[in-house]
C-alpha cells in the first residue's frame, strides 16, 4: 500500500475522527493473514479466518497438469524453496509475462506431484522476519484444499466465510500452456459444489476473462485496476480510461465491483477521490487494495520510528479508508481491521 506524500497529514487528522461506516465494510484477508504467516498457505488462510476475516483471498495459477493452486505469481522463486532443489535447477528459465521479462521457476512447468515436494516460505523476510519461523511448514495449496479448509472452519465456527479468487495472467497461460483457466475454474467450482449463491468473488486485471465468466456463471465479479498501465488482454486500453465515469459504466455491464489501488480512492487532501462517487453511481462496489501495517508500506507521518519492519499507525490508515466510503478492503492484517471496523 502506498500513499501520496501530501496525504500523510490528512491521515493523521482522519485518525482523530471516528469513522461513520454506512454499511459493514468487508475485510478481505489478502493472501490470508499474510502479515503474520507466509502468504497463500493454509496456515495464513486459517489465521485470517480465526481473526474474523469476511473473505480470504487466493490468487490462482495452474500446474503443468492443469491443477489450480494458490500463488500470488506463477513465479515460485520468492515464495517457495524451489531454488534449494538441485533436481529442479534446469527448470529455471526466462519468460515474458504481460510485457515483463521474469527469470525464475514457474508453476506451469511443474506437475502437482512435483510441486508437492516444495515448501512455502516468507516472501518479505526483511520486513516480516517473524514469519520466517513458519518457513517450510506448508506446501503450496490447491484451490480444492482452500475450499475444504473454509468448509471445515465454517462447521467449527458456525459463521459464513467467503472466498475471493483472482485469476492470474489468463491470456499468458492460455498462450503458454494452452490451458484456459476460465474453463478450468468453472469446472472446478462445479466439482466443489460452488455456485453464484455462495459468498464468492472472482477478480482479474484482465477484461476478457471476466466477460466470459459473466456469460457463463452467476459469480460476483471484480475488475481489478491500477494507477498505471492497462489490461494485458486489451492493447491500447488503460485503467485510467476504464475508471472514468463512462469507463465505469462499461465495467458495470460485466462486473459487480472494482478493485483499485487505495491511492486511487483517497486524494492528497485525505478525502475520497471522484472515483469513489463515480463507481458507486455506476452501481459498482469498491474493494481497495492493500492495507499493510509495517512502516515500509505507510507514509512517514504514520511510521513508528525508522525500522521498516516496525508497526506504524495502521488505525489512522484504516480510518481514512473507512471514511472514504470504500466497501471493502484487502489487508495483510485482517484481525486488526476487524477490530477497528467493529469498534473493538
List the defining traits of the structure above.
344 residues; alpha/beta; TIM Barrel; eight-stranded parallel beta barrel; two-stranded antiparallel sheet; 16% strand; globular; disordered N terminus
Structural class: alpha/beta
What's the story with the biggest beta sheet?
Answer: 8 strands, parallel, barrel
CATH class: Alpha Beta
Count of the separate structural domains: 1
CATH fold field value: TIM Barrel
The CATH superfamily appears as Phosphatidylinositol (PI) phosphodiesterase
Question: In terms of quaternary structure, what is this?
Answer: single chain
Determine the fraction of residues in helical runs and give it as a percent range: 25-40%
H/E element order = HEHEEEEHHEHHEHEHHEHEHEH
Overall morphology:
globular
Please give the number of β-strands.
11
CATH architecture: Alpha-Beta Barrel
Measured by DSSP, the beta-strand proportion falls in 15-25%
Mean of pLDDT: 92
End-to-end distance: 24 Å
Order of strands in the sheet with most strands:
1-2-6-7-8-9-10-11
EC number: 3.1.4.46
Catalytic activity: a sn-glycero-3-phosphodiester + H2O = an alcohol + sn-glycerol 3-phosphate + H(+)
GO molecular function, one term: glycerophosphodiester phosphodiesterase activity
Domain GP-PDE: 25-341
